[in-house]
TrEMBL record:
This is Purine-cytosine permease. The chain crosses the membrane at residues 62-83, 111-133, 153-171, 183-208, 228-247, 268-288, 311-332, 353-373, 379-400, 421-437, 443-463. It comes from the Bacteria. Keywords: Membrane, Transmembrane, Transmembrane helix. One of its GO terms (molecular function) is cytosine transmembrane transporter activity. GO terms for cellular component: plasma membrane. It comes from Polaribacter butkevichii. InterPro entries: CodB.
Amino acid sequence: MTQYHQEEDILTEEVGGEFERTPVPKSKLKNWKSFIGMYAGEHAAGTEFMIGPLFLTAGVSAFDLIVGLLFGNILAVLSWRYLTAEIAVKNRLTLYYQLEKICGKKLVTGYNLANGILFCFLAGSMITVSATAVGIPFDMPMPKLDDTLPNGMTWIIIVIIIGAVISIIAARGYDTVTKAANWMSPIIVIAFIACGVVALSQLGVSSFSDFWNIWGEGAEPFPGQTKFTFWHVVIWSWFANGAMHVGMSDLSVFRFAKEAKAGWATAAGMYVGHYMAWIAAALLYAVYVKSPEALSFLNNGQAPPVAPGPMAYNAIGVLGIIAVVLAGWTTANPTIYRAGLAFQAILPKLSTAKVTILAGAIATIAGLFPAFAMKLLGFVALYGFILAPFGAIIAFEHFFHEKWGITKNYAEVAGLQINKAVLFAWAISFGLFYFISIKFDVFLSFVTLPSWLLCGFLFMVFSKYYQKKTNKK
């Protein structure tokens, strides 16, 4: 055994195999196939069963949905490839440790807490999705679009069991998460295709014009929902995973990549999941909307429920139940894994497995409340808006620190607990654009990019000022 591999084995033992505070060694790097499986599994998953129907409740037109998703997903893939993956393979650090070096220990603790909790809420919404499938054999009442609280003991028991299983899988580490995704994703993809084909048949579609007319020129949104236009679809689909790509959360994933080209693997998730699967799930809901049950809701001025389990079961039977359960798992698993890494940065004395179980417990509690899943479009926009600007701090420092004459990882170099440049840059950009969103009723996804750019620019300006001021002392 070479000295290099002896050192790697020691390193692996010391950090528990997940390399939370050290660069990933070469022997642990993974090829592009690992990322295709993970991203196809994660993004042809539980969220897709919710988001597709929610687009329909927002009154999108055929052009807005089909063309808007095409462009929005291209922008997302480019963001992963040329920002996230590019930086990840240079540093090979988790997002949380990278931010600690830039922001300082105390400041990044607040970020990690917010990040971990928001990821837990997202994972919780996927536990909700899986529960709608598991509950079918038990004749469980399904949550309605405006439900907030659990609707019965059966719901609570099912959610707790699903959450426990998902948490155990996530706690076993990155390798187990990717293996689970690789095993489940082909089943889920086949199920989505089958659901789409069956739904087209149920809708009587025999030509492309029939398909196009399902959405037609668009419609008024369902009660309580926001009207989506072409630009809503483009920008929302770009930043649906804004926290992961421009927000740099997936530094924790791509630090295992051999090359930045692995970033192209995200296209498997975007076009199998965020394109084909969203449209297939929307078709399922289009079938349900024509049912007597749904029409009774609409006639009473209420939005029909969005319950992925029954919709998939109606289309392809037991395979639909299995697909929805697995789909929820393949989203919740890596999301809980990310949340565990965030909590591990706050509680470094606890093992990754223990903090991941903690994250899973929080996600399970969130899963008891259907509101996180039923308001997924708005929630995803909010968490991307909150977290994405921190990614700008990493990106601007990485690409422009030499040109601006700024010291990288300044909090680590100067021994700062709080880097004021980061604090002020994020607070100003967040405060300004959140005010604009609320005051002028601007959809949050529309102000995510301006907030990201402003945060990165202000960070460079403030860093230049504070570092120059410190150096004069």
